[in-house]
Amino acid sequence: MASATSWYLLPPDLLELQIGQIDLLMAMYPEDITLDDHAEKVLDILRNAVDNGGSCGLNIAPVVSMVLQLSIAEDDAQTIRLDLTAPFTYEGFQTPDEPPNFKVRIQQPSWLNRAATNQLQDVVPEGEDLLSTIEHIKETAARALEVSLQSQVTSATSASDSGTSVRVWFYFPSISTRSKRDDFIKFAPAYNLTGFLYAGKPGLLCVEGGSQSIDEYMRFIKTESWGNIPSHHKKVSERYRETAERVFSDMTEITDTVGERRGQRQNRGDMKAVEEWLDERGLKEALTKVLM
């Protein structure tokens, strides 16, 4: 069917392929994708057109628009909304071999500014299939979220690091989740903190830097990194705080480099080896106070 604007409805086989992509999306994201009443009606008309040999009786070029609430973090705490538009027509006299690509527009999320959102939109790939495009957006948005979180915490260091440096020791009955451990290391530089993490049962965290920076760092970890953990599982206690010059040059994890792992799950730490490692750095007495 053609109109004054010279658009043509896709042939039945391509209509079916385009509708199939929508059906696949709805199967993959049953709780996260939304079609309004108009889109539902247009989709029904197009389904009938497939059965009727490609006749739809519409006077304007049909499109089906939907919104996908895409989770970009493992804990589903942060999402990004995508406006997806599926065209069902083509122009010119040459029938295409494939249905046209979906149009994808990124809505600005609350955790990202307009400029950064525009940058995300600018790098949306062209010519790729829809699922690859969605996966690309998810990956680039996750990196943008990490940058955004780091920028939020960087500003906390300038004022809080002007005073005396302290060393604070924290004790965990148990800490093992890899992503949670990685966050201790990843976000420490934003607060200008150094020290080490020793994971397992028990676990130790030693943090050096400004006293306020350390407090804000731990608050950030508990609210952001541990945001999806029930409060009764967030078991960590501060055991000892001392005024001291820095001993460590950065924040590192020493779990796999100090001592041998024991226990059925290899999660029992070798505290004797940790004690010897700290003794070489003049910190043996501090460890004794932490473990008392």
UniProtKB/TrEMBL annotation:
<protein>
    <submittedName>
        <fullName>Uncharacterized protein</fullName>
    </submittedName>
</protein>
